Amino acid sequence: MGCSDGDPPSAPTPNPASPRVTSVNGTYNGVMQLTSGPSGSCGTSDIFTVTVQNKTFQFVLNQPQVPWQPQRVFNATIASDGSFNAGTGVAYMRGTASQGHMQGQIVGDACQFQFEADSDGTF
């Protein structure tokens, strides 16, 4: 018959699977930890929870140590790249949401936090 080099033909390399696209919508639960501010009045860590619907969410930062602004309300819209940035004046909230994970920074009038949370993916 014909000549052979002894090596069997190699199998074609499968294409890597495309990353699974997931919606950013859902309820995110995690922890926010103090990064700057008086720990006695700001706490050191708190539960962080937001519900994202139609790529938007609202987060209320309670800051009882600031009598002139005891709450800051952040209304955020998540951009197509997963980023969000919301705020008024010196206070802001920014971060990213992607593949069921959200992380970012919250800067209030007296305290600053960083947060990480994961989505339950319910909707």
Which tags fit this structure?
single chain, about 120 residues, mainly beta, Lipocalin, six-stranded antiparallel β-sheet, about 5% helix, about 50% strand
Please tell me the overall pLDDT.
85
Tally of alpha and pi helices: 1
Radius of gyration in whole Å, from Cα?
Answer: 23 Å
**How many β-strand stretches?**
8
Helix content: under 10%
The first-level CATH class is given as Mainly Beta
The fraction of residues assigned to DSSP E strands is over 45%
Task: Describe the fold and architecture.
By secondary structure, the chain is mostly beta strands. The chain has a single domain, classed as Quinohemoprotein amine dehydrogenase alpha subunit, domain 2 (Lipocalin). 3% of the residues lie in helices and 50% in strands. It contains 1 helix and 8 strands; from the N terminus they run E-H-E-E-E-E-E-E-E. The protein has one helix at residues 39-42, and strands spanning 26-36, 45-52, 56-62, 71-77, 83-88, 91-98, 101-107, 112-119. It has a 6-stranded antiparallel beta sheet, with no helix packed on it. Strands 3-4 form a two-stranded antiparallel sheet. A hairpin with a 2-residue loop joins strand 5 (83-88) and strand 6.
